[in-house]
Amino acid sequence: MTEVIEMLMIILIVTLCFLMIPFNTKPSAVIESRRKFDVFVRLYDKPYRGDAREYAYRFQIFRTSLSKIRALNERAREANDTAIYGITQYADLTDREFVARQLADLLPDEPGGGAGGPRAYQKYVIESRSAEMKNDIIFSRARRDALPAVRNLPPRVDWREQGVISTVKNQGGCGACWAISVVDTIAALAAIKRNDRKLIDLCHERVVRCAANGNNGCDGGDTCRLLEWLAEESYRIGAAESCLERNLADQEGGLNCTGESGVRREDGALNATLVKRFSCQGYENEEHLMLRHLATKGPIVAAVNAISWKYYLGGVIQYHCDSDYELLNHAVAIVGYDLNATVPYYIVKNSWGPRFGDHGYVKVAIGRNLCGIANRVSFIELA
Q1: pLDDT for 174-192, tens place per residue?
Q2: Which residue among 80, 111, 140 closes a domain?
């Protein structure tokens, strides 16, 4: 009898446990994170799939990224059309690694010249070694309040719709944003000048390898220095289809940077890519001048602070993007804008491949110098 009573008590206790403590049918946070990480590793074909130690290390970084993404998206609940952040190909990198791989290619600029004395250019204007060229280079320097505001501009401009914007490039492990942004913009401006608006993709690889004036190839460069070099050297950028560097495994051997070797003489892109004059200045409180140039002339080049783009998936960046001049670390092309949107934005062409962001593009809100997008801008005029 005692055994029966004991058995009944056990059954009662177990029953009460099931009634009072329901099953937790949801997987743990770690298991859910591991599932996401496994998909991430396969999707981006990460090289450490067979390395257990590295896999575990990257998984911990990935979990940290998930926490940061949740924090970034908190603002999305409070604002209209704000940016959405999520898992990108960089979610397994520490912030230090991300900066070193993707944002170390825009050489730092010291507006005051630094300890080494005056630089070849300053924050607001290019100072050319040629007095005659200097007058041309500053052709578009802003005159305060000289132009009407945005009410007289087209509400929407997107040069992609005109067929003059080349495909999004992927700089990969080469720190070439400074060259890609400039060369792609020149290609677009050359197409706009042609009667048939034919787009000819240009060989940015050769520019990366050959540009002097303080530029360091895949180790980094500067958009302003590059434009000064292109103008002073009357450098003609060849078409991508005749670009020896693009399909050459060893880019150091067999090629030189004298004259125009590496492109064919009959290359139709040559004469259309000469930089006649350019500007390199700030429009922090005059972004309407950037809009006007985009509407009437074509794409422009800008330096930005892209540290918060690590997890960008789409939408309009309105927060989490510091604008300090000293934080500029990346170069992009701006190919249009939309003033009709709930949050007006720039259409920014990046160089991290078409799988990044909005098919390789980023939307940045207009009017607040977000990401420092108006700190150092270049307008380019071709010969």
Answers
A1: 899 999 999 999 999 999 9
A2: 80
Q: CA 265 to CA 248: how far, in whole Å?
A: 20
Task: Tell whether the model's pLDDT for residue 142 goes beyond 60.
Answer: no
Q: Does residue 97 form part of some domain? A: no
Please calculate the CA angle 235-262-101 and round it to the nearest 5 degrees: 80
pLDDT mean over 221-239:
92
d(CA 316, CA 273) in angstroms, rounded, equals 32
Same domain, 195 and 338: yes
Instruction: Look up tokens 């309009």; give the residue.
Output: 316
Q: What is the C-alpha to C-alpha distance for residues 154 and 209, in angstroms, rounded to an integer?
A: 39
Token readout for 152 is 């007289």
Q: Is 50 exceeded by the pLDDT of residue 19?
A: no
The residue range of the domain holding 44 is: 30-80
Spatial separation of the C-alpha atoms in residues 188 and 171, rounded to whole Å = 19
**Start-end of H helices in the chain:** 2-20, 29-43, 52-72, 95-102, 131-137, 177-193, 204-210, 223-232, 287-296
Catalytic annotation, residues:
177, 330, 350
Higher pLDDT, 107 or 94: 94
Return d(Cα 35, Cα 101) in angstroms, integer.
26
Residue 51 and residue 148 share a domain: no
In whole angstroms, give the CA distance from residue 63 to residue 182: 36
Judge if 323 and 216 occupy the same domain: yes
Helix (H) or strand (E) holding 84: strand 84-85
In a domain, 325, yes or no: yes
122 domain residue, yes or no = no
Amino acid at 16: L
DSSP 308: G
Kindly report the backbone phi and psi dihedral angles of residue 157, in degrees, each rounded to the nearest multiple of 5, phi listed first: -135, 125
pLDDT in tens, 242-295: 787 776 544 454 456 754 544 444 455 566 788 999 999 999 989 999 999 999
CB 97 within 8 A of CB 256: no
